[in-house]
Amino acid sequence: MIKTIRIGFIVNPIAGMGGRVGLKGTDGEAYYEALRRGAKPVSPIRALEFLNSIRTRNIQIITAPKVMGEDIVRKSRLRDKLFKIINSINQPTTPEDTRRIARQMIEDIDILVFVGGDGTARDILEAVDKKVPVLGVPAGVKMYSAVFATTPRDAAIVIEDFVKGNVEIVEREVLDIDEEAFRRDKLVVKLYGYLLVPVSSGRIQSSKTIYQDFSEEENKIAIARYVIEHMDKDTIYILGPGSTVKTINKLLGIDGTILGVDVIYRGKLIAKDVGERELLDIINKYNKAMIIVSPIGGQGFVFGRGNQQISPEIIRRVGRENILIVSTWRKINSVKVLRVDTGDYEVDAMLKGYWKVLVDYNRFVVKKVV
Fold first, then answer.
1. From what superkingdom does this record's organism come (predicted)?
2. What is the mean predicted confidence (pLDDT) over 333-338?
């Protein structure tokens, strides 16, 4: 007989809001700037998708009040599994709410599930350390840590496997970046510690890997040369984040961003570090557009991690046939498959399948997006 598992459930209600508006995070004052730019909540949608995807009935849910969990549980198909609500929260919510509620629930739960990004993972780490297994439902902008399921639906399957005892509990890294440095276009990643994570085959992402050596840089230059030589003069090019893609800017002598989304036309920068709204305006002005993106090293995500400005609507408008994936040999060989997690199930389905990936000057490999 399968025993009933108690799940602690905490939602960071502002996680991920900065992504589509080009803020690369929502920590601190960035939250208010995200609101000013018209950002919409992301994590409640992801949290509800997670809960509604759980098929097992052998669970009870202990959650935070209101927007930090209770509201979403009551909207879900698991509303009858709500067992207990922990304490109270501030308005607006704070990281201390996350830490305090996590500490209060750990004695009563078998596993803690949080919905957020790397910043939320750090709060959970500080609160619970290795006292209980922890699973992250991806809802942030970056998510470099190795504690997240690949998608909310995969998180639900991990929980089902956890209930059945079909997982391995493994120490996984909690990583985060300096968001202030990130917004200044500098990538500073730090290891904060380890959480115990239930690992189910292929459903937990790896931590981000950063590659940097001389041969890697030569490889990026070769890729950029090929892209530039084959650019169409009537097409706008939407360049995703990352040093592989942004080597194109470097060879063109363009002062773009490394970690944001830039747009070039006829070899010139026409928009720098843009959000979804600006991209839609630009696409409306031009007849043809192409998206150039590179997967995250060690994880394989092409869309849905760090480039949410290139939203499902942007992808639909541009079309699958006008997306180019580029990667160095070393990065592409570090992943078995590529992944997408745009937050839109239909767009994810459209993007799945086999892709040609540009890995050197006029050299391609075929990789599957799952």
1. Archaea
2. 92
